[in-house]
Amino acid sequence: MDPVSVDQVTTFRRFNRYFTRRIGALDDHYLGQDRPLGEARLLFEIGDGASLRELRTRLGLDAGYLSRMAKALEAQGVVRLSAHPDDNRLRMVEPTPAGQVELKEQNRRANALASGLLEGLTADQRAELTGAMATAQRLLRLAAITVTLVDGAAPDARACLDAYAADIDARFPEGFDKSDLVGPEEVSGEAGAFFVAYEEGRPVGCGALRRLEPGVGELRHVWVHQDARRLGLARRLLAALEAEATARGLTLLRLDTHATLTEAQAMYRACGYTEIPAYVDHVYADHWFEKRL
Questions:
Q1: How far is the C-alpha of 51 from the C-alpha of 65, rounded, in Å?
Q2: Which Gene3D superfamilies match (predicted)?
């Protein structure tokens, strides 16, 4: 992967400084209300109610810092803390009537701020800006996802394969038999490799590599959770698998795919894979591809 340039870093930081100032993130009275952005955002994320564990994961906050903010909101009378009815170890937080009123006003003011920023632009410029923001969010999500090599028997690896199997079972007209999934021994150690993609600690994708013969590897089960699709994650997984294959001395990669997976076929072709005659008799294969590394 190409190194990040100084100009790119400078542009990124310049935008951050401008945007945080423009939306009032530096003000102790965010949106003109009597609290800073951190507390206002927490109140927004609490919504109708949530667990502190869920909020910690969603916001990426230190447990102690989150607890202090929640207690501060409780002291101000806008939220209440309680134990989960089915698990005393799980702390829940929900808005009080006063908190619901404040949250409604917060949303009104935030909408007005966004509308005010967009009013100075033409319709085409608004479309350009909001499209650029959507692209920025997509790329930032992708940048934050990590692709990690794990043991083929790891719980996250098997959970991803279970999700993959359920996904394609619903898509294949003939269904899918889970016995076709790779075994842990096929994608661990010298035999192969298994990658899991994580977004904020949650597995959202996977891909497997196994050795077919000297110098030749096979890709299996490249999958992305529906919540993380259209980010470019499948290509990230593919790049990780190819790099691992190269590191293992493999010079040729092969794969097969089902006729219904047209998006997968398009991706493989775009990434340099060429369609070839069948190299293996596989019940779920309609197309076969290979790429020389």
A1: 15
A2: 3.40.630.30, Winged helix-like DNA-binding domain superfamily/Winged helix DNA-binding domain (1.10.10.10)
Q: Is 180 helix (H, G, I), strand (E, B) or coil?
A: helix
Cα-flanking dihedrals φ and ψ of residue 282, to 5°?
-130, 125
Q: Does residue 31 contact residue 40 with C-beta atoms inside 8 Å?
A: yes
Q: Which tens digit of pLDDT belongs to each residue from 201-210?
A: 899 999 999 9
pLDDT in tens, 47-102: 999 999 999 988 988 999 999 999 999 999 999 999 988 888 889 999 999 999 99
Read off the tokens for 99.
């908190």
User: What DSSP string runs through 237-264?
Assistant: HHHHHHHHHHHTT--EEEEEE-TT-HHH
What DSSP state is assigned to residue 216? E
Q: What is the pTM of this model?
A: 0.85
Which tens digits make up the pLDDT trace of 172-231? Answer: 999 999 999 999 999 999 999 999 999 988 999 999 999 999 999 999 999 999 999 999
- Listed in sequence order, the residues at least 6 apart from 52 whose beta carbon sits closer than 8 Å to its beta carbon are 63, 66, 67, 70, 90, 91, 92, 93
**Residue 176 and residue 156: Cα distance in Å, rounded?**
21
> Which phi and psi (to 5°) does residue 134 adopt?
-65, -40
> Which residues 6+ apart lie within 8 Å of 181 measured at CB?
161, 164, 165, 221
Torsion of CA 108, 114, 116, 117, to 10 degrees: 170
> Tokens 């219904």, residue?
260
Query: What DSSP state is assigned to residue 185?
Result: G
What is the Cα gyration radius of the chain?
24
Q: Which long-range contacts (CB under 8 A, 24 or more apart) does 272-276 make?
A: none
